[in-house]
Amino acid sequence: MKRILSGIQPTSHMHLGNYLGAVRNWVKMQEEGECLYMIADLHAITAPYDAAGLAAATREMVATLVAAGINPDKSVIFAQSQVPGHSELMWLLASMTQMGKLQRMTQFKDKAGKNAERVGLGLLAYPVLMAADILVYKATHVPVGDDQKQHLELSREIAGTFNHKYKEGFFPLPEPVIVGGATRVMSLRDGKEKMSKSAESDMTRINLVDDADTIANKIKKAKSDQDVLPDSKDGLENRPEAANLLTIYAALAGETLDKTIAQFAGKQFSEFKPALADLSVAKLSPLTKRMGELLKDTAEIDRILRKGNEKADAIASKVVAETRDLMGFWK
């Protein structure tokens, strides 16, 4: 049976890219195996963050997942920091992870830039914690985007190193789950940049907490070009903004990109954007409304988290204990 593990950081609001590229697919995965969905608050503190708002952001992320269709009675929703096994296994795995591999990670180089000697250890060790997140549950499958493939490959290497050193087959080598269709939603202001929570301008993304007027305004002001919409995918070459907006429409409508292109072929953005805004509001408003209802009942959110934390810890603590035994620690 598949055991699927994925996570999302409680930093800022979940946006359309998170939803279409990941969370909507997580909902479908609940039928494919045992699913554990982690609020990755330990990862969140590897960059500057608002300590006073971290708990509230965690609750909001739980509310968003439930509103999007994650069933807490079917899947495990939990906070990473509340399962000690993540941190302990991370340290055990760090002892056998080569520094050179961590320093060559693309995300580390991108985020550290020219200040690599000044960044915190957490940013460098981020991939080891990610490996621990996966291996502490002996997860078999991990949904990943393009930006996390390298980290998952390192997780497989770390698992292989442990298995070779201590016990073959102890940790399964996690397989990536690459889902099709809108897996990479781009910025509304730059079709070459991924839609991101960390982007300075809020106009680059549609947040799931945005109201109808805000969504419509963001789409109206989204970057486009002067040409009419094409009649084939070939016509999207060198038109990243057009490709992005059409991809978003197709994903929200649940149809192929080819069908969406055919629907709007030859039309101006002035005609397409209102249609995209109407569709976005229609699809996202029920989710936003449900989020609001959940956030009014923080006791229920906390109940969901406590229940999920207990289930996750029951799995993780057993795996960590077995790992300590294999490594020869006194008990």
What can you tell me about this protein's structure?
This protein has two domains: 3-183 and 298-327, HUPs (Rossmann fold), CATH 3.40.50.620; 210-293, Tyrosyl-Transfer RNA Synthetase (Orthogonal Bundle). Helix content is 53%, strand content 7%. It has helices at residues 16-29, 41-44, 54-68, 85-94, 99-103, 106-112, 121-135, 149-165, 212-220, 240-253, 257-264, 269-295, 298-327, and strands spanning 3-8, 34-39, 76-79, 141-143, 175-177. The chain has a three-stranded parallel β-sheet with strand order 1-2-3. A two-stranded parallel sheet has the order 4-5. α1 (16-29) links the parallel β1 and β2.
The strand line-up of the biggest sheet is 1-2-3
Q: What name goes with the CATH superfamily of the largest domain? A: HUPs
- Main sheet record: 3 strands, parallel
Oligomer: single chain
Inertia-based shape: globular
TL;DR?
The chain has 331 residues and is mainly alpha-helical.
How do the helices and strands line up, and which of them pair or pack?
Elements: E1 3-8, H1 16-29, E2 34-39, H2 41-44, H3 54-68, E3 76-79, H4 85-94, H5 99-103, H6 106-112, H7 121-135, E4 141-143, H8 149-165, E5 175-177, H9 212-220, H10 240-253, H11 257-264, H12 269-295, H13 298-327
Parallel strand pairs: 1-2, 2-3, 4-5
Helix pairs in contact: 3-12, 4-7, 4-13, 7-8, 9-12, 10-11, 10-12
